[in-house]
Each structure stands twice: as C-alpha cells, then as structure tokens.
Amino acid sequence: MHDFLVDLLICPKCYGELDWQIEQRSLNHIEKGEARCQVCHTSYPVQDGIGYFLLPDSGREDLWQEVDSHLVQHLQQNPEIEKRLMGVPLETLSPADQFFRAMVHEEREEFELAEESQSVANSGIYTDAYLSCWQSQTKYLMDRLASNDKPLIDLASGRGYLVEKLAQNHDFPIVATDFSPKVMRRNRRWFEYLGISDRVSLLAFDATKMPFKDASLEIMTSNLGLPNIKGPSELLHELRRVLAGRFMSITHFYPVDDNQNRELLRQANLETMLVRDLASAAFEQSGLQVEFTNICLSLAEPTPVGVVLEGAGIDALPVAETNLEWCLLEAQQSSKAKH
Description:
There is one protein chain. The protein is built from twelve helices and eleven strands. By secondary structure, it is of the alpha/beta class. Strands 1-2-3-4-7-6-5-8-9-11-10 form an eleven-stranded mixed β-sheet, sandwiched between helices. Helix 3 (95-107) packs antiparallel against helix 4.
C-alpha cells in the first residue's frame, strides 16, 4: 500500500487515530507493518503490501475464498474432471467452463493463459449489448477522470477490472479495495503480471465500516460493486462520512416491471442498489445528491452453467431475460447536507 494512505486511515472499529510500526518499505509502498488504534488498541496488519482493516466480528464470509477453495478441492478430488477442463482445447469448452478454467489458471499463476480464457469466456457468457454498455461506461468514466491528479479509491473492486483499466491509462495513485483478502492477494499477483502494481494500493475492509477519516476522499469509484456490499444504508452512511468530492459508480438497474428478477432481488435484499428509483431515494435520504449519466440499454440473459463442472453457475442474476439500464451513478454531498 502507498505510504500516503497513513495520513488518511483511521480505525474502522471506533474511528480512533492509528499508531504505525513500519517494518519494510519498497520505494513509496509499505510492504510490511502494523497499525494499532490509540483508543481501542485493535491492530491492523500490512502483509505483502496489502493493508488488512477487517474487523474480527464482521460476520461476513469471504465468498471469493469459498469459490476458489471449492473449485481447487473439487479438481484435486476428481482428476478426470480436471483433465476434461484443463487438458482440452479452450474452444471446445462451454463459456462457463472457460470461465472456471481461467480461475484455475489464475490460481496457478498462469496469467497469460488466464487472460486468454477469460476473454473467450466473456463473449459467450454475456450478450454483445451487455458487453458494449459495460465498455461504454468504463470509457466514459476514464474520460471523466482524464484531468484527475488525486488518489482514487475504488470500492468493492473484486477482480479489479476497473482498477486495471484506470492504472493502464492514468498516472494518479489508485487504491483497490474489497472485503475479500483472497481476491486482494489475487489482485496483487495479477497487477504485478500486468506491470501496474507500483500505481495500485490494496486494502481489505468492509465498506460499511471504512478505515478512512471524515471528508478525506476526493475521488471514489466502483464497478458494479454496490450490490455486493451487504448493508446499503450502512454503506451510504459511510460514503457520506468519508466523501469530500465525488463518487462515481458503473451501475445497471433492473426494470420496475421485471417481476421475475425483482422477486429474487427482494429475496436477496438487493433491490436498493439494483432498482433505479430505490437507489435514488436511498442516496438522497442519506444526504448524498445523485445523478445518472451516460445511460444506455442492453439485453441481459441468464449466464450459462458449466458442462464439465456440471451445473456450476457464474452470476445468480438475471434469472430471466431482461433489459438493463446502464449508467454512471454520480454522487456528492447534497447542498442541504453541506449546510
């Protein structure tokens, strides 16, 4: 993690100031050390350049860890399935199996093969319109940030697709964040392979308890990450607390009359961030002024399941064909909140 973060970080448990013990540096990065809260004395380690600011009582499971562990164990226990997944030409696999093959290549640090498998898989997993809208939002966001010279914090980065694009096209420091230590460790290796690790910091924390000082962040982004953060009201409270400038999130919304998909959204407690009117109301109620820009529509279909890894799915949504409204969700402190 970049050493400039020392001045921005606080204890996510009680928001107390931190005392730092830095054991190892690499240029302007902290590779190993520990931050200890002056108030509640909770410790937060930095290991292999990744800052871990997770609270022990968060009660959330690392889904990236679960998926990867289950996949690796399944292949170890079933060598004939591994041979059918990894020992055949890529084009003979179904799109879902191509995706899982990319995950295995990543786990083995075969990054060039992983990149190839992922690229081929995406064209079969998602509709052309879906990919076109996603790419449009990414380009639009990058263009909006062309003159930015401040550090950027990306929430719920996942596998770092947006972080990767930003780091390859801009020079400002970027902070990739996620709840999952597993995906942060994966991203470190991946960014080193891409040659962009010197421009990216990695922090693991829960976005509903962010380790940042009040009004300390000028630029924040997210790439389809908001629905993955449990506790939308807590997330928005934290966004309002830490945000001094603008939050920009690549987002898509389900139609109001899409009863089949909305029923699953309700059951999974995902409606707030995936239905536009509900998201708008939630942001406004939290004291954040919100607007939606660069709107485009795309057909979305249920993602395919594995054939070799029989029945293994990728995305839980949509469960039925629908038309998604894509946009860049932009939020900042409302004029009422400022006064």
